[in-house]
Every structure is written in C-alpha cells, then in structure tokens.
Protein 1
Amino acid sequence: MAKLFRTAIMGPPGSGKGTISKRIAQNFGLQYLSSGHFLREGIAANTDAGVLVKGYVERSMLVPDHLMSRLMLPRLEQLTGHSWLLDGFPRTIAQAKALNDIFQMDLVISLNIPFETLRERVSDRWIHPASGRVYNMGFNPPQVQGRDDVTGEPLIQHADDRPEALQARLRHYKDVAKPVMNLYKCLRQEKRITQQRRSSKQTAWFPVQRHPVPVLGYRHRPHLALHQLSSQH
Ligand code: AMP
C-alpha cells in the first residue's frame, strides 16, 4: 500500500494559505481539509457547534482549542487510508499537541511572506462572508465586480484588513504560531517557505515547477516544486 502523507500548512493573514493549499492538495492528490470551512459550514447549518463558535469566527478570534480539537480530530480519524492536507489547523500549541497525540505529521509547511506583500494582498482582499470565499482584486478578482461568483451576493472587506490592524494580527499570529513551529522543528517536520521577491501575484510563485524542494517522506511525487522560493530550516 502506498505510504500515506499527512501535512499541514500555516501562514499569516494574506499569505495565500488557502489558495496555495488547494493547489498542493490537487497536485498531490491529498484530501483538503480547511478548519475555517468546517466552522463556517457549522455556523451556516446552525449546528450546536456552529452556535458555539459563531461569535469567535465573526470577530476573527481563535475558537477555543477544545472546540477545535472536537471539530477536527474525529474527521481525521475517519480518514484512515487517506493522505491529507490541513489548512488552518493546528493553529495553537494545544491543537498541535492534540493532533500529534493521534497522528505523526510528515510535513508542516509554514509560509513566510514579507510584510509589504501581505499588506498589499490584504488591502486588495474581499470576501464572501457566508462561504469564506476570498477574492483579490489584483490577481483573483470576482467575475462581476463586488459580487461572489457562486451566489452573486455582495462581497465585503474586513475592517481588520486595514494596515494598522494587520500589524497587530501579524504579531498575534507570530506569537501563537511560533511555539507550534518550534514543536514541529523539534519533531523535524517543519519546512519553512520564504517568498523572497515581492509579488502580489501568487500564480507567479506557485506552483510553477522550477526549483524542486524535497518533501520529506513522500515517495511517489518526491518533489514539491516551488518557484521563486527557497526553503530553510
Ligand atoms: P480561516 O478560514 O482559516 O481564515 O479561518 C477563519 C476563522 O475561523 C478564523 O479567523 C478563526 O476565527 C477560526 N478558526 C479557523 N481555524 C481555527 C483554529 N485552528 N483555531 C481557532 N480558530 C480557528
């Protein structure tokens, strides 16, 4: 049987984490699991869990760890026999430890993007609040300006996507993410990806295949190819 591959991606607001992870999942045949998507699904369906998490998600605050673990871990346990990529989970050290108690990760990717690039991307970002679909007026605009492609509903811009708020969000992200990355570094599962050149075009740097970066433990597609990126430990 082919080796299963279990990976997670972490990145600050505006890093393009969602877009990149969907491409990786598609290219490498991994099941794509987004914690934000599951939360929004529960909120839209008004489930018990959805009611509990609504206030946090609407204010872009971290949902408490025990709720996140209860949401994510049973799903993963059902996916025995599948390779997967997690987008948005684990986000905190408590979540990473809870995950690590059950699964050994093959790789954790952390995106490391210059502040200026994040600022540009975030200020151009519009979202469809109900689904969480994200558009970027620069490189991923909606078909009709200001409207969601699927529902046609209006797009909104978050107040916390303003540059002043972005600084604070980045600081918060770093504080929370650092212990998680340290854990995976200790476990030798973290690979940091640094975007060196400023670019607001994600398609310009992923997933064009130029500089192959070895992916630990992945036998069938031994290289995750990243363009204009360097990997560091
Ligand atoms: P995302 O789609 O990953 O940007 O997540 C949207 C929102 O869901 C976040 O702003 C948080 O409120 C919440 N969220 C998603 N994943 C997590 C997580 N692992 N831990 C806590 N809150 C989360």
Note: Confidence is low (pLDDT under 50) at residues 196-233.
Protein 2
Amino acid sequence: MEVIKGIPVAPGVVIGRAFVLDDVRERVPYHIVHADDVEAEVSRFDAAVAQAIKDLETARTRAKEKLGPEPAKIFEFHLGLLHDKTLIDPIRHRIVSERVTAAYAVAEAFRDLADRFRAMGSDVFRQKATDVMDLDHRLLGHLVEQARDRLAGVAEPVILFAHELTPAQAASLDPTKITGFATDAGGRTSHTSIVAAALGIPVVVGCQRVTRQVHEGDQVIVDGKSGLVIIRPDMETLAEYELSAERIAGFRADLKDLASLESTTRDGTHITLLGNIEFAHEIDALLAGGGEGVGLYRTEFLYLTSATEPTEEEHFEAYRTSIELLKGKPLTIRTLDLGADKYTQMRAEEPERNPFLGLRSIRYCLQNLPMFKTQLRAILRASAHGPLKVMFPLISTAAELRQTKMIFNDVMEECTDDGIEFDRNIELGIMIEVPSAALMASQFAREVSFFSIGTNDLIQYTLAVDRGNERVANLYTATNPAVIHLIKNVIRASRRFNIETSLCGEIAGDVTYTMLLIGLGLRTLSLVPSQIPHVKRVIRSVDIPQCERLARKVGSFDSERQVMNCLRDELDKVFPEANGGWPAG
Ligand code: PEP
Ligand code: MG
C-alpha cells in the first residue's frame, strides 16, 4: 500500500481501478511490425510528417500575421528538420529494414538528435534540443493514440490519474465514467481544479509523482477531503474507507433537504447564494441545489471546448439558453477570461514568459477587439430575454475600465443602429482580482454598478504565489491578513458608494470562511453549486453579531495560522460534521 498526500480540491471518497493517462512518449514500446504491414507503417510515417509540416506552416502564417516576420522564424528550424533528408530518410529506412513501428523509429531518431545538441554544451544548442523534442512530440502525436482518444474510449468507471489536465479536458470528463481523479501538478484554485470540482467527483491535485507510482488497473482510493491517494490499499484501510464512503453518502442525502430552505441567518438576514458555472447545462443542478441565480458565468469555456472561435450566434444561444433555464433568476456573465492557464490552440502556439502577468483576460480582449465585440453583441442581444448583468475580469487600472466601457458603448450604439433590442439599463460591474483594484476600490465604485471579489486571483497577485503551482501551494491562502485587509477595503468602498459587492472566488464555497465573509459584511456569495447546501447549513446556524465578532477577532491576528485555527474552531462549534472545513463532506 502507498499513501500519497496531495492538495484536496473536491470532497468525497471513491474506491476503484486506476486509469493512467501517461505521457505520449512512454507509450512507444519496441514493437516489430508484421512483414505485410511494413509498407502501411511507412505510409503512416509519411502522413505524420506531412501533417506536422502542414500544422507548422499554419502556425508560422498565424505568427507572421500577428507578430511579424521575425518571431515567425522560430518555425523555420522545425520545418527545416522535417524537410531534412538526412534525418527523415534513415527513419523510413529503419522501419523497412528493422520492421520497427514508425513511432519507435521516430522516438529513437529524435532522442539521438536531441542528445547530440545537448552534448554541444551551449545554451543555443540546448534550446535546439528542446525544439527537437517538441517536434518529436508533434510527430508522435500523429502516430500514437492520443490522450483524448484514450479518455473517450473509457467504458467502465475508473479513477483517472494524469500528470496535468487542461481546463478543457477536465470540462469534457464524463463523471459516470471518471469517478474521481488525481494529478501530479496543479493547485486548489487552478482552473482545471475549479472545473473538476464542478463535476461533483472527488479530486486531489498536486500529488507530485503519483502517475509514476500508480499502475493502470491498480486498486486505488481517492479521498478528496484529506487530499490522500491510496494505492493498493490493505484490507483494513479498504474497510475503513468503505465505511467512510457510506457515511458521506448519508451526510449528503441529509444536506439535500436544505435546498428548499431559506438561506437566512438565525437572526433573519438573507445571504444570497449564487452559482459559479462554466456551462449553461449546470443551471438545472444549481437551481435544484438551492442556488438563486448565476453570479459568475465563466464564458471563456465556450472557446476552450471548441476547435474554432465561437460565432456571435453560438455565444447568443449559450446566453439565451442560460436565461431560459434560470426562469427569471439573475445571470451574471463574465466576459472572456482567456490566457494564463486558459489557452486556445492559437494562444498555445505563442507562449508567454509570465502568462499570469501577461496578456490575459480583459487585456487580451482589449487587444482582440473583433473577438471581444462579438461577445458583447451577443450579450446585449441576450439581455432582451431576461435579467442579465455583465462583469469584466482582471481590471487593474481606471483607464482599462474606461476603455472597456467605451467599447461596450460602441457595441450598444451598433446594436441600436441595427435595430437590435437590448436592455439599455444593463448593469456593468468589475471583478476585483488585482491588488491595485482592491486598493483603489473607492475610485472604481464611482464608475460601476457592482463588484465581485475574485479571491482566486486576488490571493495569487497579493502574495505573489502562482495559484496553480503545487510547489508553493502552502503559501497560497486567503487566511493571509493582507488578503483579508483587501477584501475589507473593497466591502467598505462598495458600502460608501452604495454599490453591490459579492465574492466569487473558491473561498465562497469553503465553509471555513462563511462566517468570516458574513462578518466582513458580504451578503452575496457565488460558489461552486455542489457546495451551496454546506454553506447554507453554516448560514442557518449563525447570527450576524457572532460573525462580526469573529471578523473583528480575525482582524487582530497577524499570521495565517492564527486565522485558520480561529476559523476552524468557530466552524467546529456550528458545523462539527464539516470536520475542519474545506472541502466539506
Ligand atoms: C477569481 O479569480 O477568484 C475568479 C473567480 O475567477 P477565475 O477563478 O475564473 O480566475
Ligand atoms: Mg480570476
């Protein structure tokens, strides 16, 4: 039995068989091809080379259009290699003479070439070695069964292990087949984790080397609350976890009854609980669980799950469907938040050195106006069908907000000219995710109708800790007094200027923080739908003076540990079954 400690992301216990999504290179065994199939294998190789050349030429053209001729030259080296007979012919020859698979011959030839570059010792040649391996992956990608094909082929329920998944891959998992998952990389609020948590299956990330420790078919347990992955459990551990899974099922069944009850404190204050969604189809479950609307619709997932850029019609359909499903309850659409760890294929080909500090989110939209305007137009069209608000992510300066509002006004005018109906009083808000915006909240409050505090990013930018990096995950916490101070500042500013503030970072769904957030003055939280019953359970067990006392006490601490201990002690008094908090259940 092996026990691995990772970072808990989504609660629950699952026991099952492991399915390991390994690196494509590790699935290139030495295989002899049947004599009759050699010719076909050579054709497969030629087709893979031709396809890789086509892909690279497309990438080069795109880079040239967007970045100019100089940066586009990086593709010349790759293309040069694929046209180089001294590299390609020996691979073809080896497939024929030794009857090895095309994948094997490619892997060997490219590894030799990369080794030769590395042996040359200079940085320039080391970079060339990386380029060679990149090309090797491209070719193997055409020759070996792809990760997505393997995932799509899963027939029986399994527990997925992967080094890392993209948010789009996580979004396409079928929870009836993938009953839990664990990854080597990732942090609690990386976007992959957020999407995974919405699937309602136990998830543990940041397990460092779990994909090397587990073998396909192993019996495994994923404990999403304590962040443990247990490989080949002994009988005693297995029995313990079977009991625990039963207990959790009972606990969840009890919580279901809360859906129809008011989200009100013991002294009668209503706390609005909205849902964070990535797709319209999550709305039914959100409402069934007691959600009162959508506080954050992460619309960039329309891009991430589609190979081509969505059209205005596709945007519009997604928003109109959401409005219909919400039956009069409010919808808050966040405009595209692409970049950082959410890449389209095209962006993946233009890597940035510091993507979280780079061209992401509203900055990306402001540099890609046709794309941004397409979305805004669709939003405006949808606004004629039901209550809808718009919020802009990652605003960090007043100029950025003003430019964004100007573009919004332009699109409004265009819609008017085109005779399109829309809500002329549509409310515009911003996410507060950057310390500059939190510090200047009073200024921003004069120019928008509402704030939504995005603590997932606010924490990372305040503490300079990458939210998706498991190596610094211990430093990433909302219990840091500086983070709490900024949240307080935003709430104070919004009260002074009488605008609404909600909080939609992952801590809104973490019962450890519920009393503190109410005590700081928040009356609206937007959270992962599955956590609504848990948070409501806390709300119904507390009163406002009790929460305010807690907030004052927390405000006097100067260390994360003090804050966390205090929050856990208080939670234990009102919700002992949460057993220390996140993720409850
Ligand atoms: C946040 O940053 O807190 C947030 C809600 O946005 P996202 O997690 O999509 O970056
Ligand atoms: Mg964010």
Note: The chain has a mean pLDDT of 90.
